[in-house]
Amino acid sequence: MDNNKEKKAAIEALLFHYGEPINVGKMAKMVGFKEDECHSLIKELSSDLNDNPASGLAIMENGDEVELATKASLSWVLKKLIEEEFKEELTPAALETAAIVAYLGPVTRATIDYIRGVNSTFILRNLLIRGLVSRSLQSGKKNVYEYRVSFDFLKHLGISRLEDLPEYQKYKNILKDFESFEEKQEEGAPAPAEEEL
């Protein structure tokens, strides 16, 4: 990938999909570019977005972390969107995401995205704003957050503990089996037979 435009496009795509602040060093490893080159490409991409009146996006930088965000001048669009979201009941996508967090939590956004097959950043923000989920840094990781449901979520459902959710233990056991299978795959062990999964 020698084309500068393609490299900027790759960084833009990564930032869009990642949906949260990401360390430039981590980004460099993910896209296979040198860290200095990533810094240079980010500056160019930021300038491109700022100079383009047809784009509603901007690059936010905080130390060695960057994030793709909405331009400050268009914050009114997000305000309207959030206001509309709060007027309505939770969408099926939000309910699906909340259920994943409830049964699998603490769970990372990457795992939620993998299960749902789509980027869940906006839905998780919505659930955070509503107070139905909380997030915290994953132990031993610098930029990875784990999500879990809140006490307000339990109150909303009228239960006193997660174990009271329908078939809670069954789904927890499925997760353990899945995690065990993933670990074996990473270690290079042969895939188990279908009936073992």
- Helix-strand category: alpha+beta
In the CATH hierarchy, the architecture of the largest domain is Orthogonal Bundle
Shape call: globular
Order of helices and strands: HEHHEEHHEHHEEHH
Quaternary = single chain
| Mean pLDDT level | 81
User: What would you report as the Rg, rounded to the nearest angstrom?
Assistant: 20 Å
CATH superfamily of the largest domain: Winged helix-like DNA-binding domain superfamily/Winged helix DNA-binding domain
- Level of helix content? 55-70%
Low-confidence stretches: 191-197
Tally of DSSP β-strands: 6
How many domains would you count in the coordinates?
2
Identify the notable features of this structure and list them briefly.
single chain, 197 residues, alpha+beta, Arc Repressor Mutant, subunit A, three-stranded antiparallel β-sheet, 6 strands, globular, disordered C terminus
Please give a quick description of this structure:
The chain has 197 residues and is an alpha+beta fold.
